[in-house]
Structures are given as C-alpha cells and as structure tokens.
Specification:
27% helix, 8-stranded mixed beta sheet, 10 strands, alpha/beta, elongated, single chain
Length: 238
C-alpha cells in the first residue's frame, strides 16, 4: 500500500520538481505515523531546476519521416521553432579531436555512443561533461544522443549527472531511428533533421532529503545508516 501511494499517487519525481517535494513531505508524514519522533526535512540546493516539456523531431531528407525523441534532462530548450541542420557523426569526443573538426558549424551532431563508450562508461563520462561546451563553441546547433533500448524505448538520464545545465539542446533519439541515420550516413547519404525541445528551466532550487532517526535502545550512541532514492525519473511509474 505504501509503494502504491508513492508510485500511483505521485508518479515520477525528478529531483527539485514540485512532485518530488510533495513526495518528501508525504514520506516525512509517513515516518511520523509509524511513531518515529525525530523526522526532519534536510535542505540542500541543486544548481538548476528542470522539468521536461514537449519534444518533436523529423528527418527532412533523404526521406521525410518522424523521429522518436525526447529531451535529455537538464538541457535547455531549442530556440523557438527548433533547430534544423545536416547531421554529422561524431565518434571521438576528446577535446583535441573536437577542436580539430571543421565540419560542425551549423550542423546537428549524432554521437556514436558505441565507440565513445568502448572503453567503459566511467571513462567516457567526464568526456561528455567537457564535450558539450566544445561542440557549442564549434557552432553545432544541437546533439542527438542514441538510446540503447529496442523499439525506440527511452531511458531518462541527465546530460551532466549533477543538475547542471548543458551548453546545448540534446535530444535522446530512439535506438532504431539512430541506427537508421547511421546506416544512411555509412552509405554516403546527406541527412537533414529538425527537432524542437521546450523544457522548463529555473535557477538554483532547494531540495529536501527526508531523515528519520530511530534511537537504539541498547547502543543509542552508535549508528546504522540506511539510504534510498526518493527521487525518480519521469519515464517510469515512479
């Protein structure tokens, strides 16, 4: 019943969203209802508040067709009307390689994540943090980030893993659509796409952890810490 209240009553709880804060208050009330005396909402601040808005995209050539895409979290909206440009593949996001490229201005970058992650997720992650500002500096209009699930299913995630805004609009593109574009590029086709992301972005936001203390009866001066996520991504059931 408790799990049902949380998932069905609140749903997705992206960090810093009003839904998350309501869920934090609910959790504190729940702990108190169990007879726990010391329950606190512990405040901390994230750099930016972010909530998902609308997303749409189309391939314009060589054949017009819809693209399955959503916004990656903590990325800005596109300009009004979206961005449109030729697709260029990027399979190396090290700083030297990006600075050496002269074909990014006015283009939309498709990341070849299979090659970028070839040496492991943790090794590649800091490269992404540095790559987006460099792509913007090089004149890229936006980024297409392929998902990893079949049938164009999406996995929500953050561009920087720290509630900080990305330098560019980044659209999470369904795996089937990204592989289609990659195949066309491999055959020498020129691909033009357009996408539009509209997200709600705010400045620094105060968020609350929920802390409940059950004082031990035999060893009250010692601690056992148990933690869990209260926040959740917004594509699942929460």
């Amino acid at each position: 019943d408790t799990l049902r209240e949380l998932t069905d009553g609140f749903g997705g709880r992206v960090t810093g969203s009003p839904t998350y804060e309501k869920a934090a208050e609910w959790a504190a009330t729940r702990f108190k209802s169990y007879g726990i005396q010391n329950v606190q909402l512990e405040a901390f601040t994230i750099p930016a508040g972010w909530q998902r808005g609308s997303a749409s995209g189309r391939m314009l050539r060589p054949a017009e067709r819809p693209l399955h895409l959503e916004s990656i979290a903590w990325v800005p909206s596109t300009p009004a009307g979206g961005v449109k440009g030729e697709v260029v593949l990027v399979d190396d996001i090290t700083a030297d390689k990006l600075r050496a490229r002269t074909d990014l201005r006015g283009r939309i970058v498709l990341l070849d994540t299979a090659k970028i992650y070839a040496d492991g997720f943790l090794k590649a992650l800091p490269l992404f943090h540095a790559a987006y500002p460099l792509l913007k500096e090089a004149g890229a209009l936006g980024v297409l980030y392929p998902d990893r699930e079949s049938n164009n299913v999406f996995n929500a995630h953050d561009a920087g893993w720290g509630a900080t805004m990305s330098a560019l609009p980044i659209a999470q593109l369904g795996m089937e659509d990204s592989k289609l574009i990659k195949r066309l590029l491999d055959h020498g086709e020129k691909i033009e796409v357009a996408f539009d992301l509209q997200n709600q972005v705010t400045g620094p936001v105060q968020v609350h952890n929920v802390v409940a203390e059950i004082r031990g009866s035999e060893k009250p001066e010692e601690w056992i810490l148990i933690g869990a996520h209260l926040d959740s991504w917004d594509f699942g059931t929460g």
